């Protein structure tokens, strides 16, 4: 074991992710160390793992892991563009290509790896590229600008990521793979096929079992790739991603021991065959294995630092399980995915229609998890990985671990994990580290993150970390608070009562008397909604304005690029030809994307904030009102055509739908509310999937309550039958107002009902039998709300001061230059970051009218 | 150690004080940079903050339309797109170490608001 003195010169060759991690760790453990870094690239270390985000807009700066100032502050000397060409072991120095030499006492090789380019004739032409560095990305970007088609050679993990980048760049994209399947290292053949189907659905063509013989000049495109089976593919650019090879040339020249197929041989301390030279990261070979992931490289860096500074951390291999999202397709692979362990057995779940495939590999005795393959749904990954890593005993029916939402599925609680369980593999944080962080005073998720760095890497462990932290805190009797947020120790329902009982009319007054701090995006809108339900003031009165989410302030839903959507109310889905024409004219004039919504009305997308008042002025003049698509309020009342036209209809469902929509429009609630009215039992309006559903009978109306679609669909419960219209309306008044008063924030009626003690019967007793003796009050409150209804857009455009809020800039007429559109299927859509970068020909700035 | 020279900031006109909206944000264009300006009422006193308007996560110019509030002692705006919090005093993103926004100095000058360009 060595002990470092401040005279020792530590020289690091290579400043990739692992080389940088070494510098950081050494500096932290031994601030006096004399560190020099020779960096082959033109820039200091950056995040290679997230390289692809460059194509979705991240800049080289965003990717940087460090900068010159930080290194200077740490006293680390560094030279960029310094490729080392020789190591002179006797003289203990290295020489760069430029001829400069640097002495060392200890030398660290962190030279990483380079992309393997198969020896195909024609592989060195200008548009034949690789994907490893920021410089490569710049080359790809400029080649893409002059290309229509792109081919990625290699269907492994990196190849598919590269394919995604080409697709984002707007190229017609192909993947050519030599093996019979994609991601052959991580997936079995069925998994590979499911992945291939999904990727092809996204518009990337996959060619498997194709061996490229030669790349020659193309007829239609720049190049023609000719395959061994005499077929060919034409393309303008080619990206090689056929595997990586360790950068071991330096070590080879210096006669360090290498593996048979390359890689610098290291021991558990990352020491090479020369005791003064270490190798870490992707250039290193440990027990005949190369580790092509960043986490094992980091562990090597820590082992090397530990050896240098007299610690006892060693490198003892690493788990190569991976979970990732490729073009939106979830893929996971754990341990022995290929069932290579003797006696291994497997369970599979294959849902072809939905493209979900899961395989669980267990040992012969069915006692433990050896591996898994997950395609299309990786929600079981964390649990399975913990089983595999910690040898946790399998449940009675191991298949329950991969079957969808079977109630039998035992969820692996945080308590079941052993103390040694790795929670965050990026930063090597075990459950015991989290427990001791909490023991030494951390009392929130944020504290634990700060103290352990857990979940600050790839982020994949966030949910698991939260479970462990919550459960540990609860064990210590830390109350898991039901408070709305850090500013109010009350639930929404409690605040509602406080507001009502004390007649409080503003957020300031409420936080002054019952809260603390300045509020936040959770409590402000919730209080705004309570104030609106109790008093139904104009929502954008100056004092209420700061309480609203931006959607409510600008009376439209913000889209991903900062523009807004416009959804006028079309009560019951009934619309006149003139109104349809007006919508069309407005959309045309302002170049808006037009779509029929799932709520029987029309959405116009892509309006810049400053055009909203003008657009709504036109709409309001044409007889439209706001549709409250932005608000936690009544959305739509869907209807079917009903007895007026339909040969089966038994009541006028359209009229009832329109009347109900007009009655409750503008009502603020804990969450959005949706209705539907069907004209007969055929139920074409899908009323049973709504918060309030009404279905016509021979004798009147059946009322259903508390249904919804969305994330967790729930059918409505039959509440009362054969009601006349007046009774129907009275019941709805009461149900809704009771919901508004008692539900929690962002609780839809379905969840409210499921949590209501006594459930449906209780609700019936309150609404029908007036068990609480509050029906009069509920109805009175509803009529106040109804009487005070105003179209927020009409009020806004009539008020000069309100209109001013819609300026993009207070000091300029300019427009936001980042908002750019491209045309697709005859309409606009937001340009992708890549399209914006490529600029000019593709992205079309929108003309202002 | 080499001595560092501190350049005096250059103050540029931003907007009128009457353009500010209490407890809300507005946006101004300075040298082609979008600046989000917030007025926060803290214990009865009106304080003004300015940060860049670019949301580095959502990749859109929208921060001025976010909700204001506090997280612990920190005065923050929540991005209207994905709700990350940015400190109005330092520009730090509370949820993510890898992104941040620029925080600018501002001052009142008569009935105008000025911003420091360094
Ligand atoms: C535009 C529209 C999709 C479309 O193109 O058809 C849409 C768009 C959005 N929906 Fe929806 N939903 C739309 C119909 C629906 C429907 C169908 C329906 O209403 O019959 C559902 C399922 C029915 C239901 O809600 O029970 C639906 C279930 C959701 C959910 C899940 C709610 C749940 O309880 O699980 C969300 C998320 C949420 O509200 O938290 C959501 C949220 C959203 C948001 C607000 C997401 C967002 O924050 O950007 C979208 C805003 C769009 C915009 O800018 O206007 N949308 N959404 C539909 C507008 C209907 C309308 O005219 O107002
Ligand atoms: C697109 C892409 C996506 C990836 N995704 C993931 C992922 O999701 N998860 C994961 O764990 N891993 C991923 N990886 C792999 C991960 O990036 C590597 O494991 C990690 O970067 C290895 O770090 P390293 O320092 O060993 O090598 P590198 O990061 O390659 O750094 C080596 C550095 O040494 C320099 N160098 C080489 N020779 C010399 C010399 N003679 N003199 C001076 N300098 C030299 C090189 O220029 C380079 O800068 C991905 C890689 C790529 C390319
Ligand atoms: S389903 Fe999702 S993507 Fe589609 S509109 Fe609704 S929220 Fe948006
Ligand atoms: S596993 Fe990547 S951040 Fe924890």
From TrEMBL, chain A:
EC number of the protein: 1.7.1.15
Residue ranges constituting the NADH-rubredoxin oxidoreductase C-terminal domain according to the UniProt record: 321-385
Binding residues for siroheme: 684
Any one Gene Ontology BP term: nitrate assimilation
Keyword Plastid: no
Domain (FAD/NAD(P)-binding) ranges: 9-291
Domain BFD-like [2Fe-2S]-binding: 423-469
Domain Nitrite/Sulfite reductase ferredoxin-like per the UniProt entry, residue ranges: 559-621
MF terms (GO), sorted A to Z: 2 iron, 2 sulfur cluster binding; 4 iron, 4 sulfur cluster binding; flavin adenine dinucleotide binding; heme binding; metal ion binding; NADP binding; nitrite reductase (NADH) activity
InterPro entries xref list: BFD-like_2Fe2S-bd_dom, BFD-like_2Fe2S-bd_dom_sf, FAD/NAD-bd_sf, FAD/NAD-binding_dom, FAD/NAD-linked_Rdtase_dimer_sf, NasD-like, NiRdtase/SiRdtase_haem-b_fer, Nit/Sulf_reduc_fer-like_dom_sf
Cofactor(s), names only, from the UniProt record: [4Fe-4S] cluster; siroheme; [2Fe-2S] cluster; FAD
Residues engaged in binding [4Fe-4S] cluster: 640, 646, 680, 684
Assigned protein family: Belongs to the nitrite and sulfite reductase 4Fe-4S domain family.
Protein name (database record): Nitrite reductase large subunit
UniProtKB/TrEMBL annotation, chain B:
Rieske-like [2Fe-2S] domain location: 10-115
A molecular function GO annotation: 2 iron, 2 sulfur cluster binding
Domain of life: Bacteria
InterPro entries: NirD, Rieske-like_NirD, Rieske_2Fe-2S_sf
GO biological process: nitrate assimilation
Record keywords, A-Z: Nitrate assimilation, Oxidoreductase
Record keyword Oxidoreductase present: yes
Matches recorded under PANTHER family: NITRITE REDUCTASE (NADH) SMALL SUBUNIT, PTHR40562
Protein name (record): Nitrite reductase small subunit NirD
Organism: Alteromonas profundi
């Amino acid at each position: 074991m060595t002990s470092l003195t401040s005279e020792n010169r530590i020289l690091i060759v290579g400043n990739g992710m692992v080389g940088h991690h070494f510098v950081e760790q050494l500096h932290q453990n031994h601030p006096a160390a004399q560190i020099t870094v020779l960096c082959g690239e033109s820039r200091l270390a950056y995040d290679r793992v997230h390289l692809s985000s460059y194509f979705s807009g991240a800049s080289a700066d965003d990717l940087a892991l460090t900068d010159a100032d930080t290194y200077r502050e740490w006293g680390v000397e560094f030279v960029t563009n310094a490729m080392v060409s020789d190591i002179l072991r006797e003289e203990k120095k290295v020489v760069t290509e430029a001829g400069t030499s640097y002495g060392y006492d200890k030398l660290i090789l962190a030279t990483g790896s380079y992309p393997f380019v198969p020896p195909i004739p024609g592989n060195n032409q200008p548009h034949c590229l690789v994907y490893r560095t920021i410089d490569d990305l710049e080359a790809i970007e400029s080649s893409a600008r002059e290309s229509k088609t792109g081919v990625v050679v290699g269907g492994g993990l990196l190849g598919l990521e590269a394919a995604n980048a080409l697709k984002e760049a707007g190229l017609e994209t192909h993947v050519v793979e030599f093996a019979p399947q994609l991601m052959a290292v991580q997936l079995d053949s069925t998994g590979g096929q499911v992945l291939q189907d999904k990727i092809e659905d996204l518009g990337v063509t996959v060619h498997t079992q194709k061996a490229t013989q030669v790349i020659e000049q193309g007829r239609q495109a720049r190049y023609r790739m000719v395959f061994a089976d005499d077929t060919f593919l034409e393309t303008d650019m080619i990206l090689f991603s056929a595997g990586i090879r360790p950068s071991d040339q330096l070590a080879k020249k210096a006669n360090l021991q290498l593996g048979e197929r390359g890689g610098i041989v290291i021991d558990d301390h990352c020491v090479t065959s020369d005791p003064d030279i270490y190798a870490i990261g992707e250039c290193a070979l440990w027990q005949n294995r190369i580790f092509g992931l960043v986490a094992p490289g980091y562990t090597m860096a820590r082992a090397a630092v530990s050896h240098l500074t007299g610690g006892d951390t060693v490198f003892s291999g690493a788990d190569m399980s991976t979970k990732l999202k490729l073009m939106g397709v979830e893929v996971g692979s754990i341990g022995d995915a290929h069932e290579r362990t003797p006696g291994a057995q497997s369970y599979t779940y294959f849902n072809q229609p939905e493209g979900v495939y899961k395989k669980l590999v267990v040992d012969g005795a069915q006692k433990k998890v050896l591996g898994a393959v997950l395609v299309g749904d990786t929600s079981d990954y964390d649990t399975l990985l913990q089983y595999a890593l910690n040898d946790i005993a399998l449940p009675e029916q191991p298949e329950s671990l991969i079957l969808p939402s079977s109630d039998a599925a035992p969820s692996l609680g945080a308590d079941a994990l052993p103390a040694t369980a790795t929670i965050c593999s990026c930063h090597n944080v075990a459950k015991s580290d989290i427990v001791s962080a909490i023991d030494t005073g951390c009392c929130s998720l944020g504290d634990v993150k700060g103290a352990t760095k857990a979940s600050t890497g790839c982020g994949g462990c966030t949910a698991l970390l939260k479970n462990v932290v919550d459960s540990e805190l609860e064990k210590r009797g830390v109350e898991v608070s039901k408070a709305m947020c850090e500013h109010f120790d009350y639930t929404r329902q409690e605040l509602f009562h406080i507001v009502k009982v004390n007649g409080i009319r503003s957020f300031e007054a409420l936080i002054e008397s019952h809260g603390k701090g300045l509020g936040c995006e959770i409590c402000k809108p919730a209080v705004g909604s309570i104030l609106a339900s109790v008093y139904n003031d104009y929502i954008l009165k100056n004092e209420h304005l700061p309480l609203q989410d931006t959607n409510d302030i600008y009376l439209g839903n913000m889209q991903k690029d900062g523009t807004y959507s416009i959804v006028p109310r079309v009560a019951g889905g009934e619309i006149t030809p003139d109104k349809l024409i007006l919508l069309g004219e407005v959309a045309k004039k302002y170049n808006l994307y037009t779509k029929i919504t799932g709520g029987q009305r029309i959405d116009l997308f892509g309006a810049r904030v400053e055009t909203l008042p003008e657009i709504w002025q036109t709409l309001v003049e044409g007889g439209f009102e706001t549709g409250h698509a932005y608000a936690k309020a009544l959305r739509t009342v869907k209807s079917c055509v009903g007895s007026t036209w339909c040969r089966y209809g038994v009541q006028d469902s359209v009229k009832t739908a329109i009347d109900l929509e007009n009655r409750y429009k503008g009502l603020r609630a804990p969450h959005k509310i949706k209705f539907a009215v069907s004209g007969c039992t055929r139920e074409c309006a899908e009323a049973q999937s709504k918060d309030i559903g009404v279905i016509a009978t021979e004798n009147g109306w059946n009322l259903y309550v508390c249904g919804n679609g969305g994330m967790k669909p729930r059918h409505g419960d039959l509440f009362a039958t054969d009601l006349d219209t007046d009774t129907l309306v009275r019941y709805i008044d009461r149900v809704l107002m009771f919901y508004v008063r008692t539900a929690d924030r962002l609780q839809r009626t379905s969840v409210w009902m499921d949590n209501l003690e006594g459930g449906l019967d209780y609700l019936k007793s309150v609404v029908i039998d007036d068990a609480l003796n509050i029906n009069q009050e509920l109805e009175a409150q509803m009529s106040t709300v109804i009487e005070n209804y105003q179209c927020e857009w009409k009020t806004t455009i009539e008020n000069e001061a309100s209109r001013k809020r819609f300026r993009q800039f207070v000091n300029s007429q300019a427009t936001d230059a980042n908002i750019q559109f491209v045309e697709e299927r005859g309409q606009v859509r937001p340009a992708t970051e890549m399209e914006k970068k490529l600029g000019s020909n593709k992205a079309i700035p929108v003309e202002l009218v | 150690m080499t001595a560092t020279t501190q350049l005096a900031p250059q103050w540029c006109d931003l907007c009128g004080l009457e353009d500010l909206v209490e407890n809300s944000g507005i946006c101004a264009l300075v040298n082609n940079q979008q600046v989000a300006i917030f007025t926060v009422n803290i214990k009865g006193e009106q304080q003004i903050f300015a940060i860049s308007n670019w949301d580095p996560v959502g990749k859109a110019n929208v921060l001025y339309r976010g909700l204001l509030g506090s997280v612990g002692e920190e005065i923050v705006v929540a991005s209207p797109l994905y709700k990350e919090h940015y400190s109005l005093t330092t520009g730090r993103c509370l949820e993510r170490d890898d992104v941040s926004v620029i925080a600018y100095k501002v001052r009142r000058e008569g009935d105008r608001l000025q911003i420091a360009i360094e």
